[in-house]
Queue: 2 jobs
Job 1
Amino acid sequence: MSYITKSPWIIHYDGSSCNGCDIEVLACLTPLYDLERFGIVNTGNPKHADVFLVTGGINAQSEAVVKNTYEQMPDPKVVVAVGICACTGGVFRECYNIIGGVDKVIPVDVYVPGCAARPESIIDGVVRALGILDEKRAKMAEKGGK
Amino acid sequence: MITEIIFAVGFIILAPFIGALIGGMDRKVTARMQGRVGPPVLQPLYDVFKLFEKEKAVVRNEVNFYIFSYLIFVAFTGALFFSGSDILLVIFALTLAHVFLILGAYATTSPYSHIGAERELLQLMAVEPMLILAAAGFYMATGSFAVKDIALWPEPLFMTIPLLFVGIVYVLTIQLRKSPFDLATTHHAHQELVKGLTTEFAGPTLGMVEIAHLYETVFFLGLVWLFFASMPWLGLLVVIVVYFLEILVDNTTTRVRWQVMLRSAWLVALVAGAINLGVLALL
Amino acid sequence: MYSVELLVFLILFPVLAALLFCILPNGRLRDAIVVLVSAVIIVATLYLFVLFAGGGTVYFDIESGMISQIMTGLEVIISAGLLYLAAKYRQYLIAGLVVVQLGVVLYAELLIHETAALNNLFIDPFSIIMAMIIGIIGSLICVYSVGYMRDYHAHHDEMPDKRRWFYALLFVFLASMFGVVFSNNLFWLFFFWEVTTLCSFLLIGYNWGDEQTRKNAFWALLLNLVGGLGFACTFAWIGLTDPSGGLVMMDTLLAAGPAVAMIPAALIGFAGLTKAAQMPFSSWLVGAMIAPTPVSALLHSSTMVKAGVYVIIRFAPIYNVTMVGYLISLVGGVTFLLASGIAISQSNAKKVLAYSTIANLGLVVACAGIGSYAAVWAAILLIVFHAIAKSLLFLSVGTVEHKIGSRDIEDMTGLLGRMPKVAVMMMIGIAGMFLAPFGMLISKWAALVAFLDAQYGFILVLLLAFGSAVTVFFWTKWLGKLIEVAWKPEPLEVKISNHEYSALVPLTVLMVAVCIGFPLLSSYLVVPYVFGIYGMTATLGQANTIIMVMMVFMVLVMPLTLLHFRKDRKILPHYVGGRPATPDMHFKGSLGVQRPVALGNYYLTNYFGEQRLSHIGNGVCIAFIALMLAGILLGVIA
């Protein structure tokens, strides 16, 4: 029985977002949606996290940070791109400073489009990510021969 | 001798589960205070198991040695306490355990860990006088340092050393890492130092820290209970009330600066110790 | 049945060696003879233990007439020499003290018609413990200093090379320390005491050309002379009270009980306080850190300052349940708390060690002032553990200092990577100072029990509780510094002399051995002494001893888990705010500039500053001492 889906910890990072999606992410944690009832905790520390929520497109400055944060997360881990800017770069895709969506830097597991993505979509995305997380964990256990 | 071993082993096996239940209730009550539903009561257990499912990754290899030593000595401290040993040695063993934790944080050579370690040292320095004075108080009231003798004392020690009880409850907030004294690290979300002391601990390493925290929680609540040991059910009630107060304080206060924590903890220890011990000495 | 030869040998042999060192030139031969002489002293000390341990107290008759005259003559010569120096450097206070002290001693000698004093020398379990500290630890430090001083002069070739006098003084010092702990005749004790003051003065002033060194040496001399004057006044009192000179014998004085011996106990206690650098006399010890490290290790942590607490412990039965004793305890307790506090704010390693020494001596004094059997048991254990741990620490700091070129703890970052062997020894020394299950812990436990059982002891309990918490802070932060190992540490552990290792390693082994074997130490040496005086003794208790043994076992076995944990795991990068950081902690800062991460410890100087806490401590302790002296002057205090 895997516990990783019962206790997924989140780290959230804003690549270049207008903060719209960030506010929606935080809204998920408020008593209205109460993500903690699924054991989800917003830890600000990549080393403690299982799920990486990224908002906003990636530019030259945030590219290194996203990569670094992703590297610090121990396996198994999943990445959820929240909002259309994180998925593809959104409206800013053609801008000179935006490299693109998050998948230009790190592998993304779930895309949650929207501008701003609604809390319901974000939660749906996270739940799907948990399913993928479970698969990854099973694969890891096989390989490790735990 | 046999009973002591049974108690010690019992503590080592059961305390993480009891601690997890207590932690789970904590989060449930906190959630209700905030108008939420909150996680299931067994959530801390799920957290710990999840951490051990993660990849074995460290920042430096030696860190696991320090954290493992921390865990072992915390378990040892609690086992000593619940098997009725000398309470001073219990306190010194706890200090040793915390020193290992702090060294584990230092060994990562990371800035957030480092400051977390310094703050944890400040917390340790703030708490230790009160613990030693409480032990001294138990001795003056019962003539013995052995937890067994203290627990079997016919009157509730709260009547003889009430101020020391208040002091212990005060530093309990520091030890349980609850606001307003959660300077080094905390279970809540963000804090100014990311996760402070535990920033660089991942996966199983963090799992060990969590288990140690569960042991510590049970140990400290046991210490609170000791003041009412002659009336065990009243003691249990007191523990529940005290813990509820801790949750309440945790949710209604913000973190203070270390100067406030150190000064207030020392002031409380000084006043409680001087008056209570003085009265006991002069009577 | 027992013969006195061994004691006399231990006192005279180092003096003869010293004379030899005055003559021999610098070089391999002299260094080899230093090692040889040290080895002989160690063997002789061990033989002393074998011969006398378990034999109770033994007194020796030595015809004292001529020896006392030689001593008086030497005292006059030494006083003349000091007067000359004092005059040359305009140290009028010192000159005055020397004159007054000599005057008092000569006056007392006129008053006292000493009969052929018997029982001048003696040996008992406490003397054996002190002799072993002096003989074993002291000799190891002398061996260490061979390697250290070679390096020292290689680094400082502008300093005049006076190593002949250095070694001579070291061994004269050892001889006089043996004299202190073997003397039952208080005149003799005083003579040896003053010789240690002289050696300390000269050794602190090793680098005489430097002004600060001279200042510190004179200050040490001044404060120690003040104590010496107190001691000298004891003889005046004896002369006025009992001209037959019976009370000059320490055993007779102690047996006379508090009714008779209170005043000399207070005066000698005062002398002990100055020699043990208690507040308000602490500044001389801090200033003495300017001396080469072996001097700091030998005189100013493991041996000479122990002479101060030694006499206070000797008079512990007199101090028991008296106002004088209690005031002395308070001086010790306040010193313990405040000196520990000051140690937090210091980053100079030797200063931290100095204040820690002052603090620990304060704890010993606090126990001795209480004077109960439990307190004396605790005090002697404290002495043993502290002597070993502190000398180990000083010696490792000395070795480290020569390699990293600094005494500052902030420069010792990650020493475990740069100098692994020495760092581990230093860590064991630090752990030995405050961590369970090491010995200091046991001693603190014992001290706490002793305080709780004493009248008004709860004030000392308060001082111990807070002081103990403070010590955890500054030792752990030093430990933390040592283990913050850089990614590719620069290997500095090269060309450390065998002399230095041959002191460091045995001391480390001794540290661990004494912690494991402390029940043996207690029952074989400490308990017989305590029992012999009080008819009762304290122990750790069987249950507690089992727990301590378990903890020692765990602490020794735990490092083996490193073998398991060292196996390569995935290494994660550090968290530096999300900025990419290299393993050696350089991160990409703003504007893309690569910056190093610099980590420093907390020193909390606003709260634990040296000035502030010294003023408080000095003020409070002056009040206590003044109260004590006023009390005995007025004859009010019993």
Job 2
Amino acid sequence: MKRHLIQLFPTIALGLALGMLPATAQKKYDSGATDSEIKIGHINPYSGPASAYGLIGKTIAAYFNKVNAEGGINGRKINFISYDDGYSPPKAVEQARKLVESDEVLLIFQSLGTPSNTAIQKYMNAKKVPQLFVATGATKWGDPQNFPWTMGWQPSYQGEGRIYAKYILDTHPNAKIGILYQNDDYGKDYVKGLKDGLGQKAASMIVSEQPYETSDPTVDSQIVNLKASGADVFFNVTTPKFAAQAIKKAAEIDWKPVHLLNNVSQSVGSVLKPAGLDNAKGILSSYYLKDATDPAWKDDAGYKDWLAFMGKYFSDGDKTSSFTVYGYAVAQTLVQILQQCGDNLTRENVMKQAANLRNLKLGMLLPGITINTSPTDFYPIEQMQMQRFTGERWESLGPIISGEITAK
Amino acid sequence: MELFLHQVLAGLATGGIYACMALAIVMIYQAIDHLNFAQGEMAMFSTFIAWQLLQWGMPYWVAFFLTIAISFIAGVMIERIVFKPLKNAPVLSHLVVFIALFAILNSLAGFIWDFGIKSFPTPFGTRALFGQGLMSTHDAGMIAITLIMLVLLFIFFRYTRVGLAMRATAANPDSARLVGIRVGWMIALGWGMAAAIGAIAGMLIAPVVFLEPNMMLSILLYGFAAAVVGGLNSPFGAVVGGFGVGVIENLAGTFIPYLGRELKLTIALALIIAVLTVRPSGLFGRIAITRV
Amino acid sequence: MRDRIAGNASTALPGAMPFANLRGALIAMVLLLAILLPFAVKNFFVFQLTLAMVYAIAILGLNLLTGFNGQFSLGHSAFFAIGAYTAAIMMEHFAIAYYWTLPVAGVVCLIFGFLFGLPASRLEGIYLALATFSLAIATPQILKSTPLEGWTGGVQGIVIIKPDAPFALPLSSDQWLYYFTLAALVVLFACAANLLNSRTGRAIIAIRDNPIAARSMGIDIAFYKALTFGVSALYTGVAGALGAIVIQFVAPDSFTFVLAIGLFVGLVVGGVGSIAGTLFGGLFVLFVPNIAEQISKGLAGAVYGVILILVIYLMPSGAAGLLRLITKKLARALARQN
């Protein structure tokens, strides 16, 4: 009798164990995700020299309010925790650690600036926390081999530089190029892209390179030098304030080169209008998001959604600034990924879904531009289109370009 | 040679900005014997007030003078409320309060008016003057106003009773009190005037560099440098220093090969330190002699 | 002159205060608390405290120069940067272990500080402040410049690997660095107290209190001023090296004049002319901006400014000054009883 019972034990044990398994599908969480909320971390410069970019953080926060008001993601509310790093790398490290170790967020999203992101990259990858959609166009963020937890979002600066190089070679093969660039990673990245794109001809075509610091009050002196160098093509790699100054000064000293303006400063409301719309006529740039001040999108569904969002959730946000469109689009991308995660809200799955976006269309992306990622392709947006400023709005110039952007 | 002339002209135009700021700095130094770190932010805040008045439809010159009046009153109030209680605190504590004021004004401006750039109108127009627009009518107007302010200040400090009283207060508060000067109000008046001059500076500078909360920091630094190299107790020196700094900076950036462009600011500052080691009270400053 | 700088700072040497024995006991207690703390709190808080200690050491350097020698400096971020980059270059380009970087950073900064201090000794007050402030502004530019790019990594900076606890001690990397920094702090503070109580120290303080009398006593003013600059730079440089190891990253943007202003604020808030006060200064510099941000996201800077003004109102001579005032009142009260 006893032997019989003992022989039954394993079977009874197994039966009990099987009975205790949940009957529903597996819900898997890493810290930051629960049945009712998803904690998302964010680091932005709300103070200091780069404080103008704080607008992006505010737009994202407003968008997440909208998502929460509409039921959240798969029934979970977003808890958006955003900290200021003042564009200082040590502060960024402190805030990242605070988010991961103290607030225990699921992921950090859209941290801004190459120095800050470089500072936290090793830490994030060591801790295996997603560093998603970093707000910088530096090429080095798409490196799944070495940094599988870091991913950028916007088209790379070098890629954009290469687009302009190709344009110059195609339309102005004997041009003399003058460059005004911000003396940091962002500016230098663009210049590298241009030089790579020009290849052998770079040395002979570029006649003047004028750097400036964000601590300079104006760039007037550099513009004078550029005109004096005889350049007839002007590659303008400046952030909004200095871009406006450059455009204004160039017009004042009667210098009318072929003007290539980098995408960061192409906002009509924030840059071209203060600089003088007439002065900005004929400027070339490239873009991948719809310009909110362009009347051509008046009846476009995607634009109307964005406008409704701004009206209801961010009414004092600057509707003429491209930052609000950018923040909206990148927040939408994250929401898409989290929705794809379903009930499996582990960090690993978040990265898996991030690396699994196929032909994702967003309301404010230009028609024809989609988001694509794969386990070997960590560059979500790799297409841009050139545009020319008519004096009132940007109009498209040429086809959607992708070849140049695919990073080397 | 042509480039040299162009850069000098452009340097004088930028130098006008620094000279304007330097005047405000010298003004407050004459009154309170300290350098006010928050001077730039006060000027910026005044300019934002002017901008807001213009947005509300006020004509330019009305807004201009109203802003000067508001700034004057604000300067006096800041002195009475924030600094009077600290009369007996050590010098370094005063510096920290300046820093605190800086942080408050900067943050407040960003909060109320956000951090994007805004254009600010100029009453002088932006037609090109001479030499292919290297100096515009606005630049010339700015220099003119700076020079007018300089002359007015000079007359004020030399020939008016109030000006003399203020100088006495700064030089020796105890003796000044003994001859019946109301020291407290002299200091407050100095603050008010410095705030007013700062407001003028801000409203002249904003059309060139575009209005935003961070616009004054580097200009303040150049203004300091200009004031120090010119001599902190000499308004004339401040103006000369301002133009000098503007020109040197441009020439260094253009003509010193390789390093010049990347280290423009460093070179300008190094030159200033060099001047100071040779003439420790600045080019036009009076050497202070104290009893042992 | 002394009053202008140090307010009611004690004219006596740094060691003398009422209740000297009590002071010793207090120090022992604080030390014990510091040693036990990492086991009671989260790693992130340990990391923050380590950073606070790094800033305290940097502020001590500034204090030696400004508080005890009377020379204004708004440019100590430059020496912090030199120390940090020295450590980073040694660890990344030469694969030298992290503990050697501290003495080397100290020596390098000593030399730089002395060389800067020689001409600077001719400048006084506000002019010296401007000269040092220029140094702080120039530092990021110089670090980014092309000729140095090969060493400094230019704008990209240098990433450092964080050291682990040696001999397989059961400590996390954060805890180990905390103790490492604590040890450095104790050693440096003791050295500073020793220095100030020595003949050299008395010469240094004499220059602050009455330079003309000092000169007539035969003290070589220029030499001692430059020497103090050098030693002050040494302290801040060592702090910079520690900071680099703790943060694991150096870049020009980490060392802007904002850091110089922060160190200065920490100096004043802690108490000019007080060694112990620098601890409070370090904690203030690290934690108060965070507190300000928690109070109001949009107006964090304004809140910080208001807090700063309130602190100065309540403690015009810093935390150390307040403590001194309280102990004096206590001593008087007790004496009256007896």
